[in-house]
Amino acid sequence: MTLTQLTYILAVDTYRSFRKAAEQCYVTQPTLSMQIQKLEKELGIIIFDRSTYPIEPTDLGSRVIEQIRKIIDETERLKEIIHKSKRMIFGRLRIGIIPTIAPYLLPLFVDKLINQYQGLELSIDELQTSKILQLLEQNLLDVGIVSGPINHPRIIEKVLYNEPFVGFISHDHPLIKKEKIKVEDLTLEDLWLLKEGHCFRDQILQLCKSVLTRNPLHSVRLRFEGENLETLRKLVENNVGITLLPYLATLSLKGTSSERLIREFYPPVPTRRVSLIYGKSKLKLQLIKVLQKAIVAAIPAELHKYNSKKSSNSNKKPTGGELAHFERSTKP
After folding, report:
1. 172 and 249 assigned to the same domain
2. Read out DSSP for 136-192?
3. Are residues 206 and 238 both part of a single domain?
4. Which of the given ranges, 32-36, 74-78, 193-197, 216-220, has the highest pLDDT on average?
5. Distance, CA of 155 to CA of 157 (rounded, Å)
């Protein structure tokens, strides 16, 4: 029995396909199949029912796989203990990050992080929150970067920063005449949204839902739903509608003509909470802490200032309206 064989078994259980598992393990399918068969023969059991599609573990196989996951977890923990004792930052950190954070946050810290820690390998996937949670539970990711809060019994959440939204308004839209805007100014008539599954979309719809409740004369007309914020930004730049952008998405617009399309909100400002999430087993915690420190150090001074101000304000008892707005703005 080898750790390689156990890793192959977990891959097949995850992808329910020998071909896909082999691709993910960077080996040929015959090699992977042969190693799994060899272990099955050694144990005197059948782990996978090969007559089904997709492949399913047998009843006994499921119990064996559960134990294999524990073995692999403890192996990783052993490596972490050794690296920590030697004060080494070494190993592979598998990161999942949502699409509305990735293009704006990653460039701020990734290059510096890998140059600072030569023994650190980063594997980064851009995924929606639901997929990140799934892969964390399957131990196929070590950590996620998402918009919280995340209420999950087996997941730990560490807040990185709070990020305000801004309005991004086309030249011919009536709101462009205002220096600042209010949440109450928003309607769904001409507001560009992301497709379902994006937490950013859910946050914006939640904000506009309260507006519609107070002012039912607004009609809802979703003319387009995009896959990424950059598409929505381009639509607005071409004089069509409005959208909301997170603060970091506006950094690349400074000094350009598009900067004039940005409108900040009057308080209380719509905000999202950006967090690190990882499993309660705390595997690779040392590497996760290094990642956390690198991100916090990399965010711009303006965002640090906003978070410091928000933190001081949070010590005051909020009014009912402020609390309701905060709950809307942090809905996952």
Report:
1. yes
2. HHTTS-SEEEEEE----TTEEEEEEEEEEEEEEE-TTSGGGG-SEE-GGG--SSSB-
3. yes
4. 32-36
5. 7
pLDDT band at 83 (very low <50, low <70, confident <90, very high): low
190 & 232 share domain: yes
CA dist 185 and 165 (Å) reads: 14
pLDDT, average across residues 21-48: 93
Enter the DSSP assignment of 262: E
Residues 92 and 156 in one domain: yes
CA angle 223, 225, 231 (to 5 degrees): 110
Please indicate, yes or no, whether residues 156 and 90 belong to a single structural domain of this protein. yes
How many CA atoms, within 13 angstroms, populate the side-chain half-sphere of residue 210? 17
DSSP bridge partners of 264: 180
Counted domains in the chain: 3
Residue of 158 and 223 predicted with greater confidence: 158
Start-to-end Cα distance in the chain? 43
- Residue 208's domain comprises 167-265
Predicted TM-score (pTM) above 0.85 = no
